[in-house]
Amino acid sequence: MIDLYAAGTSNGMRARMALEECGLPYTLHPVALDKGEHKSPEFLALNPNAQIPVIVDRDGPGGKPLTLSQSTAILIYCAEKSGKYLPKDGAARAAMWQALMSASTDITPMFGSVNAVVRAKEPHPPTAQMFKDRLRQYFKVWDERLAKQPYAAGSEVSIADFSLFAGYMRTSGALPELLEGLPNLTRWAKEIGARPAMQRALRF
Ligand SMILES: N[C@@H](CCC(=O)N[C@@H](CS)C(=O)NCC(=O)O)C(=O)O
Fold it and tell me: How many Å separate Cα 146 from the centre of its chain?
């Protein structure tokens, strides 16, 4: 059994998507960020960075408990543990790492940067616009890629799709204008979002 400590942010969703899609049994422990629950001594013992998500796998490698933070590390851990959503072929796997890194390290942090600037005590519109333009550009490239292939990393669903979908979902809620006029990305998002495991993962 795995314990998941998370909230409904893109990083929290990414970890829950990993568990749901990989079919690993888990218990969700919601962490109320607005109440500062991620700064409690109990939570800091799990992640001294005071950030969700965290998982504790009581049956980790070698049968020992394992505590893991970083949503993309959790995604990879669940895929390896279940043997799912990691392409076997070397070239397909390399394409998957590239897609995964783009989704996890370009999209989500850029979304976070826009939010941070917009919500700052002294908002700075030109900086916010710069980050928004960058995020839009990333999604445009994704749209072009998805015109040529059905899934984020090629012809099969992989953990890159789950990572990208987490960023897509948060953007569609907060900055929907950045996703307008991107038909291939929209087609892909409809398909990935209709997966039953994805629907369960989004219910925070
Ligand atoms: N790189 C980390 C980022 C984790 C992160 O930024 N978590 C945010 C929520 S999305 C958080 O816990 N923020 C609370 C805070 O920083 O005070 C990951 O992918 O898990």
Answer: 18
pLDDT in tens, 28-59: 999 999 999 999 999 999 999 999 999 999 99
Residue of minimum CA distance from atom 1 in ligand 1: 70
Residue 47 CA to residue 201 CA, distance in Å, equals 22
Question: Are the CB atoms for 79 and 72 separated by under 8 Å?
Answer: no
| CB of 12 closer than 8 Å to CB of 71 | yes
For residue 149 and ligand 1, the question of a CB distance below 6 A is answered with no
Tally of CB atoms within 10 A around 112:
16
Q: Calculate how far, in angstroms, residue 134's C-alpha sits from the geometric centre of ligand 1.
A: 21
* pLDDT score recorded for residue 123: 86
Give the number of other Cβ atoms within 10 Å of residue 44's Cβ. Answer: 12
Is pTM beyond 0.70? Reply is: yes
Residue 52 near ligand 1, beta carbon < 6 Å:
yes
**pLDDT recorded at residue 19:** 98
Pairing mode, strands 26-30 and 66-69: unpaired
Q: Are 87 and 158 in contact (CB under 8 A)?
A: yes
Q: Which residue among 51, 77, 104 is best mutated to probe the pocket of ligand 1, counting the most ligand atoms within 8 A of its Cβ?
A: 51
